[in-house]
Every structure is written in structure tokens, then in C-alpha cells.
Write a structure and sequence with these properties.
Length: about 200
């Protein structure tokens, strides 16, 4: 009796997904991975605002009669700039749907704060020692250090900006004290504006 031949039924190939759907899925996965590893809520337009207020502060500080009043103008600007940075950072994080102070955001903050605290302590020490001319360069140098260390958990352009601030701080320490206000205007004003525009254009505001 002849054996019956078995017919092998090949399974139908899965339907191909539309290329647009695949591309959208890949973009979503890449964005999710980036957000989980990097802090992407650095506010570009917020930096532009910080730069604008710093330029205004430099114009006001220039005409102050003594160092104490000059420093008061810049300390007030630091409060204004910090408030603006936090507000715009919170708004950008909310738009992107990412947590502000957990995961990479927490690492960014923990890395950013120590040099800033050292800068505050050295400001007091230098002021009491009468080394007023060293304070602006110290501010720029340690702010740049904060941006570099915090920027290790952010997009690549952030630590580059920090290095530029550190170079400005080194320049302020190496030049006459009478140049300090120009260094402050160029760094806190100019660098914030330039890098803020670049971040806003490349990284979503």
C-alpha cells in the first residue's frame, strides 16, 4: 500500500509594518533611552533669558561706586538667574514628560551643586581677606566647573559651555581687576545667550 505523502504547509510571512511606523517606533525607543541616561531638560531659551539679565546687571554694576555695591548687583542677578533657570527647566521637563529631580536629573543636580557651594564659601573667604579682585574670576571658574560636572549627565554641548566659563574665569584671574565686569558680561551674558540659542535649536527649547 503506498504511503501517503505529507504536505508541508509553510506559515505565511508576517505582514510587513509600514516603514513610517517602524521609523516612529525607533525614534520613540531612541528618545526613551536618551531620556533615561541623559538629563535633557537644560533650558535653552531659559539660558538666553539668563544671559539677557546678566547683560543688564553688567550695565548696572559698571556704575556702582564701590565693590560692595557692585557685588550686590551681581548677587541679585544670581538669584534672578537661578530662579529663571529652575522655572524654565521645570517647564521644559514637563513638556517632555520627564522627571526633573529623579534619575539623570538628580545626578545632574548632585554633580552641579558642590562646586557652587565651594564658590559661595570662597566668596566669603576672599571678601574677608580683602581679595576682592579675585572674586569674579572665582565665580566664573567654579560656575564653569559646576556646568562641566553636571553636564556629564546632559547633552554634549553643556560641558562644552562649562569649559568656556572656566576659560573666562582663568582670564579674569589673570587680568586686572578693572576688567572683571567685562568678563562677567561676556561670560554670564554672552556665553549664556550663544549656548542657549544652540541648545534651544538642537534640543527642543
Amino acid at each position: 500500500m503506498p504511503h501517503a505523502r505529507r504536505c508541508r504547509v509553510r506559515p505565511a510571512p508576517p505582514a510587513a509594518l509600514p516603514s513610517s511606523s517602524v521609523a516612529d517606533d525607533l525614534r520613540f525607543i531612541r528618545r526613551t533611552l536618551e531620556n533615561s541616561a541623559w538629563f535633557t531638560a537644560v533650558p535653552g531659551w531659559g539660558m538666553v533669558g539668563m544671559g539677557a539679565t546678566a547683560v543688564a546687571a553688567a550695565a548696572i554694576a559698571r556704575f556702582q561706586p564701590d565693590f560692595v555695591k557692585w557685588m550686590q548687583v551681581w548677587l541679585l542677578e544670581a538669584v534672578v538667574g537661578l530662579t529663571l533657570a529652575i522655572a524654565t527647566m521645570h517647564a521644559k521637563a514637563r513638556r517632555a514628560g520627564i522627571p526633573l529631580f529623579s534619575g539623570p536629573g538628580r545626578r545632574f543636580a548632585l554633580s552641579f551643586m558642590p562646586p557652587m557651594l565651594v564658590g559661595a564659601l570662597l566668596t566669603v573667604v576672599l571678601y574677608l581677606a580683602g581679595a576682592h579682585g579675585q572674586i569674579p574670576g572665582t565665580w566664573l571658574l567654579l560656575y564653569g566647573t559646576s556646568v562641566v560636572t553636571g553636564g556629564a549627565f546632559s547633552v554634549r554641548i553643556v560641558p562644552v559651555m562649562g569649559v568656556c566659563f572656566m576659560l573666562a574665569g582663568a582670564g579674569a584671574l589673570a587680568t586686572p581687576a578693572s576688567w572683571a565686569n567685562w568678563w562677567m558680561a561676556g561670560a554670564f551674558g554672552g556665553l549664556h545667550i550663544v549656548f542657549g540659542i544652540l541648545i534651544a535649536r538642537r534640543h527642543g527649547g
